[in-house]
């Protein structure tokens, strides 16, 4: 049976199409989960080294730091894409073939990254800040730096192809990106339709910002590659830093806006209440389209040549970036759950935890975005504290909750298994402690990205190591659950 047109806002696919799509989504999630587990082990290793419980060379430490940074961002990207694609294809027709192309391009890029780091010795961090990749003082070769940047360029190309397909599907179903975002309803040109899918709004926002972010990333990567083999080509270092942080900041932020579709789609199923859109909802998502792209200068406040207006914009928007969508999503989640009689399965607990992590994780970022605080905190552990809070307790629980939903957990009154409870609470406690130890370390002026810590800092690192071990324990439970249950799980109803 071939697929048919839109019915009740949803695309109807054949059983064969749905089966193939589900296999592709599972592959994305399992790959993302496996990479995340490895990156968490890398993080645990670094904390153990800083805590003097493990000894490795400084070169290897910075290689692990590099793979940890780029690996977490990549895994978050491929996993959140799986979440968004699964729900978005219910409203717009998407190509399963292009979805797989992005998957295999991503895998090829990961292999190149691993080769550049562990065979070529590249350890210049995921930020590849110009001119560091070309000035390694013999620690890594020009070829290793080039393969690292070429790998990112290839991975970005795969995502661009996927976003083109998403754009094609959205335009085919809704006519324009503005209609998909609900702008005619926001500005009163048409009546508000409360059944307009939140997933389409979120997916359109992610498409716009990530397409631009990755395109900018491609430009700076090409400029970096040219410099590696033609040193006479010397681009402006501040311009390069701006382009890199625009690309990186937009990409990692977009992962949480892609994954929040799991909250919009799943909480209504577990509570029996629809997630209704409104003018406030559209306004929040429309605002975040611009705010998420303009907020990155809060990473450049210590670069004194930056134009003052750019730093002011970065600081002001940092106070509000994320809050519009967070408020409508958090408030919406509370209203849907309140007195709904929801059954607290691992799925729903993870989705609700993500609301807390997203909300609380913003607070350290807002503090760091204040110029007077930034001067003291920005090169300390405070910054890893912010993004570990944001990712471990905000983004990843959205992905894990979706995975548990796909495994069928919580169906027909089934109670969470003991192992799932152990995994959930080990992860929760470990993630919270990991983040708080980073923040406390930053508040104590402990610098980030140092392989060797002074004696006064070691206790922080040792507590952080124990906390990271709890995170890994929880992650092991989630990963084993996914590996054993996800491949054979049928489409949830």
Automatic annotation (TrEMBL):
- Answer whether the UniProt record assigns the keyword Signal to this protein: no
- Biological source species: Nitrosomonas communis
Residues in a coiled coil are: none
* Residues spanning the membrane: 21-44, 64-87, 99-119, 139-164, 199-223, 243-267, 279-297, 309-338, 350-367, 387-406, 418-440, 460-484
Q: Which InterPro entries match?
A: Cyt_c_oxase-like_su1_dom, Cyt_c_oxase-like_su1_sf, Cyt_C_Oxase_1
Name of one Pfam family that matches:
COX1
According to the UniProt entry, its GO molecular function terms are:
cytochrome-c oxidase activity; heme binding
Organism superkingdom? Bacteria
Q: Does the keyword Transport apply?
A: yes
Any one GO CC term of this protein is:
membrane
Q: What biological processes does GO assign it?
A: aerobic respiration
Residue ranges of domain Cytochrome oxidase subunit I profile in the record: 28-493
Name the UniProt key words of this record, in alphabetical order. Answer: Electron transport, Membrane, Respiratory chain, Transmembrane, Transmembrane helix, Transport
What phylogenetic lineage does the species belong to? Answer: Bacteria, Pseudomonadati, Pseudomonadota, Betaproteobacteria, Nitrosomonadales
Per its record, how is this protein called by name? Answer: Cytochrome C oxidase subunit I
